[in-house]
């Protein structure tokens, strides 16, 4: 028998063996006594003799050749192994670059829109530009603003938040720019404004769309000139503040109707971050649910809970008009309501979530217009709902609908209902059974 050890970087991986040959001819006596030993074990002596007859005796040259061959095999294994490990490393590195990050600071999400958001945040890390974050309520705009600050060179100075919609105009003025003693009733001493508090740091102007036109002018001046005058004051003060603004309003539309200044819009919208609503990134729901469950259970020193499959399905189907904030609150509520139960059953869900999609009827079906269009609309809705309900099980759905599987596939193509498209557009602006309307019921 010839053996060759395989090891990589001193780590033993295994051996290659070559056997079933004879190094020198076996004498008749030796074979006879070996046969006797085999028969003593109850095995077939004749079969042993036949096998011995077929066994090749190697010449010195052949033995040398076989030695080399075994060595070669073990070297090849080492080469392949090293090559595969290298490729694995490369694949891992590429995967990391491509994303599949599950979180960014305290933001959770692994969907494509979130990956894109993370790489945008990476790119603006060292920039000083103003940022406008746009997105519906509860999508995480403030979290993004914080991430921008805490990853920036300003991170050691303050991050200051102002909710522009929480103050009336005069109060916001004094809140942002400060005031001097006696400038208005109640101004009993000088007060520093939030712009000054945020000096060298970041000022987060939340709900900037709710700022009055007068305040918009003042804000523009501070951003442009870096100086401000406190309410009732005369001397100008220098500030070095980076502004991050957020809104859930369509500022472009506000510009058209004359309620938002175009010059301010362009001044703050140097970098634009759009946060997609949760219904457009439903892949993130399971990771968010796990995250909120883990956090909530830990806070309350409870063993880790999990949602029943049905409950998770309901959560997945619901369009979440209040986005992550709404989901966060729902999970918190479920943790409390489930008490000692580790498994959270679907019947604990809030009514609106539990009952969403329960409706097997299509509402708002058109009763006027072309019959063909109305039928197509109904067909599309039924297929879309059916696909979701059956988890894209086309065979099952075809059976339910009483059509062939091939027929169903054709219709799925016709209406653009393939899985990827539908999870993106789910309950979006699509026709017919819109999500948020039902959700409010
Ligand atoms: N990607 C996310 N991962 C984890 N929690 C999030 C995420 N986005 C938002 N949240 C949470 O949801 C809530 C709402 O976020 P917030 O930033 O206040 O939203 P917005 O300012 O857009 O209304 C907060 O409690 C926040 O921590
Ligand atoms: Mg907010």
Could you give the topology of this structure?
Blueprint: E1 2-8, E2 11-18, H1 28-40, H2 45-54, H3 60-98, E3 103-104, E4 107-108, H4 112-123, E5 131-134, H5 141-150, E6 159-163, H6 169-177, E7 178-179, E8 191-192, H7 194-197, E9 202-206, H8 213-225, E10 227-228, E11 237-238, E12 242-247, H9 251-256, H10 262-268, E13 271-274, H11 284-299, E14 306-307, H12 309-317, H13 323-337, E15 343-344, H14 351-355, H15 371-389, H16 394-401, H17 405-414, H18 419-425, H19 435-439
Parallel strand pairs: 5-12, 5-13, 6-9, 9-12, 14-15
Antiparallel strand pairs: 1-2, 3-4, 7-8, 10-11
Helix pairs in contact: 1-2, 8-10, 11-13, 16-17
Bound molecules: adenosine-5'-diphosphate (ADP) and magnesium ion.
Magnesium ion (MG) binds next to helix 5.
On the 0 to 100 scale, the average pLDDT is 87
**How many strands in all?**
15
| Poorly predicted residue ranges | 425-441
The residue fraction in helices comes out at: 40-55%
* Biggest sheet details: 5 strands, parallel
Please identify the top-level CATH class of the largest domain.
Alpha Beta
Beta content? 5-15%
Q: N- to C-terminal separation?
A: 80 Å
CATH superfamily of the largest domain: P-loop containing nucleotide triphosphate hydrolases
Gross geometry: elongated
Separate helix tally: 19
Structure ligands: adenosine-5'-diphosphate, magnesium ion
- Under CATH, the topology of the largest domain can be stated as Rossmann fold
**Domain module count:** 4
* Rg for CA atoms: 36 Å
